[in-house]
Design a protein that fits this description.
Strand content: 15-25%
Number of helices: 11
Largest sheet: 8 strands, antiparallel
Distance between the termini: 27 Å
Number of strands: 21
Structural class: alpha+beta
Radius of gyration: 27 Å
Shape: elongated
Length: 527
């Protein structure tokens, strides 16, 4: 269901007009050559439906995007592109920032602890799916780092994991006893040091190291010295290629000095979740997953300490630092967990079934539920696909709008048959629709055209899809010219080469992902 990138012998710099759904760059990499194929639905702001696709060589193989909204960046200067561009805090600076947060800036320790623990839980969920790494052990120390671990365990429980907690030196303060009570109310088990297995990897998929934070000094005392050795043993198992638990350290790997490392015999976590900003010891972290969490650094602190931190994507509580580990594509798989989609649950009329599922997607709040892949073919059978937006459907078919001089339009004029594919990842569902295609009436196209924002109307006029342009500036200039022409609020005429298509379904396929690839799939024809 996923698009494949095709390598050509010679890549030249081209500028095409196109339509797309995403404004995020999508890197496409090949052996010895790196390309970046980026598409944009809009020029942001008011130019909402002018879109360009650039295809050009990328000089550096290290291309990363921290988030989709650069304006949310913390700190000054350009977006950090490499780990070396990130700020690292000394022990003194970390302590000062905590004092400022909980002093003049009005944060309480429980607020910061809640944000930190949530950040740790979301970082874990970014990498380790609960369907494959369900069993979690949080080893918590007596201080704030341990409190972060308790909060993380609560959130992981709500995320669908099965956490257990080892909390040998409990703090009697109300904040900590309250966290324990919250976990007990969720039936999260607490395990004593004595009851832990000798090999933690046999009972747990993930170990959350929440023993010591940046204020720790000296050598670990019992029982934490023994617990740290258990985590070191997990590293040793991993080196002998035996199955081992993933170790996730909060802010500082326990036993490490905040400005140094744990030495050759210290913990080597698979994931480090830095809080506020990475500490100096994070430079010695060489595990595959480094995240920043907390999202509570205000501009005043960022300016005072000249912090350069990556922006958080969207509403996320964590952001990856550095390049992710290389992935074995052949090993990427999702074990879908979905309710059964039984025959007696399938609506007799496929239009009713589509409406039912579409309403579910809208209710679930998934992004752009009307996004669909439109596949067409030329008269010679050469196929092409692209993402478009569904703009209406009923018993007569599925409607979208486009430029009548685009590639898809030319192919539909030669071969008026197409397929649509809706993929709704959040619900493990997809719907494929096949059928014949015809243009909608001029009246219907005109009515929809004038329902769009005025910026989109102007964009449709200047956007000559699938044609080569000398540069983006041409579009900007044409857009600004028309924007000025129609600034008096007069009606913007629909271009003759723009309008809608309707696919009249001949076949529906409803797919529901299930465990072990035993998916539910139902083929329906219109009544």
């Amino acid at each position: 269901m996923w698009p494949l990138a095709r390598r050509s012998r010679k890549m030249t710099r081209l500028l095409f007009l196109t339509q797309s759904l995403s404004s995020n760059p999508k890197p496409i990499s090949h052996s010895h050559t790196y390309y970046n194929y980026s598409v944009s639905r809009s020029f942001h702001n008011s130019i909402s439906h002018l879109s360009l696709a650039f295809l050009y060589p990328i000089r550096s193989p290290a291309i990363r995007a921290f988030c989709s909204k650069p304006s949310s960046a913390v700190g000054v200067g350009s977006l950090p592109s490499m780990t070396e561009d990130i700020s690292y805090l000394t022990q003194r600076e970390a302590a000062e920032i905590d004092e400022i947060l909980m002093g003049p800036l009005g944060f309480s320790v429980d607020q910061l602890m809640e944000l930190a623990g949530l950040s740790v839980a979301t970082s874990i969920a970014e990498v380790y799916k609960p369907s494959e790494h369900n069993r979690v052990l949080a080893i918590c120390g007596p201080g704030n780092n341990g409190g972060d671990g308790l909060v993380a365990a609560r959130h992981l429980n709500h995320f669908g994991y099965k956490p257990s907690v080892c909390y040998p030196k409990r703090t009697a303060k109300p904040l900590y006893t309250g966290l324990v009570t919250q976990l007990e109310s969720l039936s999260v088990p607490f395990i004593s040091v004595e009851d832990l297995p000798l090999d933690l990897s046999k009972d747990f998929d993930i170990i959350v190291d929440a023993m010591f934070g940046f204020s720790f000094h000296g050598s670990p005392r019992p029982p934490f010295d023994n617990l740290i050795q258990k985590l070191v043993c997990i590293n040793n198992y991993d080196q002998t290629h035996q199955k081992s638990s993933a170790i996730v350290s909060i802010d500082i790997p326990s036993g490490w000095h905040v400005e140094g490392d744990g030495g050759a015999e210290g913990i080597k976590p698979d994931m480090l979740v830095s809080l506020t900003a990475p500490k100096l010891c994070a430079k010695k972290f060489f595990g595959p997953h480094h995240f920043l969490g907390g999202r509570f650094v205000p501009p005043s602190i960022a300016d005072k300490y000249k912090l350069r931190l990556p922006p958080y994507p969207g509403t996320s509580m964590c952001v990856r630092i550095g390049r992710p580990a290389q992935v074995d594509i052949s090993a990427l798989r999702e074990n879908y967990i979905s309710p059964e989609f039984l025959e007696e649950q399938v609506e007799a009329d496929p239009f009713d079934q589509f409406r039912k599922w579409f309403d579910d997607v809208v209710a679930a709040g998934l992004r752009e539920p009307n996004a669909m892949a439109l596949s067409t073919a030329s008269k010679n059978g050469k196929p092409s696909s692209r993402m478009v937006l569904l703009k209406g459907f009923d018993k007569n078919g599925f409607v979208w709008y486009t430029n009548y001089e685009s590639r898809k339009a030319h192919e539909l004029s030669e071969n008026p048959h197409a397929s649509l594919l809706f993929y709704w990842d959040g619900l493990n569902r997809q719907v494929r629709v096949e059928g014949s295609v015809e243009k909608v009436s001029d009246e219907e196209s005109d009515q929809y055209f004038h329902s769009r924002p005025r910026g989109s109307q102007i964009g449709a006029i200047v956007s000559k899809q699938s044609t080569v342009l000398p540069g983006r500036r041409v579009l900007y200039d044409q857009y600004k010219e028309l924007e000025e022409k129609f600034s008096d609020g007069s009606i913007i005429p629909k271009p003759k080469n723009w309008g809608g298509y309707r696919l009249k379904p001949e076949l529906f396929e409803f797919w529901q992902g299930q465990k072990s690839r035993l998916h539910d799939r139902w083929f329906l024809s219109p009544l």
